[in-house]
Known about the structure:
The protein has a domain at 2-37 and 98-198: 3-Layer(aba) Sandwich (Rossmann fold).
Amino acid sequence: MKIKAKGSIVVVSAPSGAGKTSVCNAVIESDKNTVYSVSYTTRKPREGEKNGSEYFFTNEDKFKKMAKEGKFAEWAKVHGNYYGTPKSFLDKTLRNGKNVLLDIDVQGGLDIKKQYPEACMIFIMTPDLKTLKKRLVSRNKDSKETIKIRLENAEKELKSLNKYEYLVINGNLNEAVDRVKTIIKSLDYRIKKGTVCKVS
Ligand code: 5GP
């Protein structure tokens, strides 16, 4: 008898500056059963970003065509650019028994949950808004105006907190990574829709 387990979708959302990318990178590096879903975006690559690594960079026409063809499991406009989660990679990876980590915004996260009710929803936040502001200022990447917009967005995103299942406070990176890994570990033992049991 062979049992083929299905992987889980792990949605990780957070306000800008809460350390989501660092947490996700550390989780992916240390958990061989969890892979990162590389999104498509119309945003321009930042210094050091490579096509196919952080994102698949594309233009608005191509993005809209893909959206129309149903190539995205979800897509959204975030801070003025389009972002979308490729559907074929997601479904194929789950069928192969691996977990897929989606680093996406709240709108996208809630959309995924509607389509994949078993998706695990994790929200990452700093201990308070003051710390978030301090991090946004100290990373020295954004103008005062951008920081103001990001803080306003953070307050809006926090209103959706109740729709998530886990809250991971990122006061200390290692602790936050351990918490996310513990949550994912528990999912590996859950029976997911689509898990098959073949008698041979
Ligand atoms: P950044 O451009 O700073 O990498 O990401 C901006 C925001 O877009 C982040 O909140 C990130 O999680 C979100 N994002 C990245 N990829 C996707 C995606 O495929 N779908 C959605 N809805 N949001 C995404």
